[in-house]
Specification:
The protein has helices spanning 3-9, 11-14, 20-34, 51-57, 70-81, 120-132, 147-152, 213-222, and strands spanning 41-45, 62-67, 88-92, 104-109, 134-145, 158-163, 168-179, 184-195, 198-209, 225-232, 235-239, 246-253. It is α/β, with parallel strands linked by helices and 255 residues long.
């Protein structure tokens, strides 16, 4: 099994402390605050293993979950089968070229999806694609690393040991490589897994760009989005500051 497939297989175990319910609660609070339209449909870009979309669809929202990675999307589809009947569809698509016939009330991209876009051109295409999938006046919400904070406090090495009920243990070593001058970096994972006596060693690398809020706002404007708010992560009532490592954007499609 390829390293990516192994990483995705244990993805939800590695990120077991991520509170998807709380995050969807916050997304819905933001939507109610900034939209006069009742939320009936949503599109998630970069859905990963599908936890956010499954939670949202479980609340009665017609949801489309989009990702460009076939392997991780297969895991999301399998997770959906374990859920009750929900209005959730999946699409293996690049949002920058995806032409959706259906238009949505809300778009969202969580867990630093925009930081995977490492060029100005790719970010522009991403935001244009999101705009094309939305109804006029629709809301777009995403989170990201705050480039201003990362420059002051770059990612550091980290070791984590995770133990689960049964015979599963995971030891994770994270070694970042930071290019602060060009605001890019890679997160290098060395993961050792013991799953009921089956042992795996996974090497996984994620390349990120540390965008500043000003640059993101400029590109969003060129893609016909109005930035309504830049807040602390999962705390939309508190304005983001330069030392807040993770931030959230709330935007509205203007045309």
């Amino acid at each position: 099994m390829r390293n990516n497939k192994l990483f995705y297989k244990y993805y939800d175990h590695i990120y077991r402390n991520k509170d998807y319910i709380r995050e969807i609660d916050e997304i819905l609070r933001i939507y109610r605050c900034y939209s006069v339209r009742k939320l009936s449909s949503a599109i998630e870009i970069g859905c990963g293993t599908g936890a956010h979309s499954i939670e949202l669809a479980g609340r009665g929202i017609d949801t489309l979950a989009v990702d460009i990675d076939k392997d991780i999307l297969e895991i999301a589809k399998q997770k959906k089968l374990k859920s009750n009947k929900i209005q959730l569809r999946f699409a293996l698509k690049d949002i920058s070229v995806y032409k959706s016939k259906k238009k949505y009330d809300m778009a969202f991209a969580l867990f630093n999806v925009v930081n995977y876009l490492i060029t100005w051109k790719s970010m522009y295409g991403f935001f244009k694609g999101v705009n094309n999938a939305l109804k006029p006046g629709a809301v777009f919400i995403f989170d990201c690393y705050n480039g201003a904070a990362v420059i002051q406090d770059p990612p550091q090495k980290k070791k984590v040991s995770l133990n689960y009920k049964g015979d599963l243990s995971i030891d994770l070593n994270l070694s970042p490589e930071n290019d602060i001058l060009f605001q890019k970096g890679s997160l290098n994972y060395d993961i050792r897994i013991n799953d009921n006596g089956r042992k795996y060693n996974i090497k996984h690398k994620i390349i990120h760009s540390f965008w500043t809020a000003g640059i993101l706002k400029e590109i969003l404007g060129l893609c016909n989005f109005e930035v309504l708010l830049v807040s602390k992560w999962m705390d939309f009532r508190t304005k983001a500051g330069v030392k807040d490592w993770k931030i959230m954007f709330v935007c509205r499609k203007v045309r």
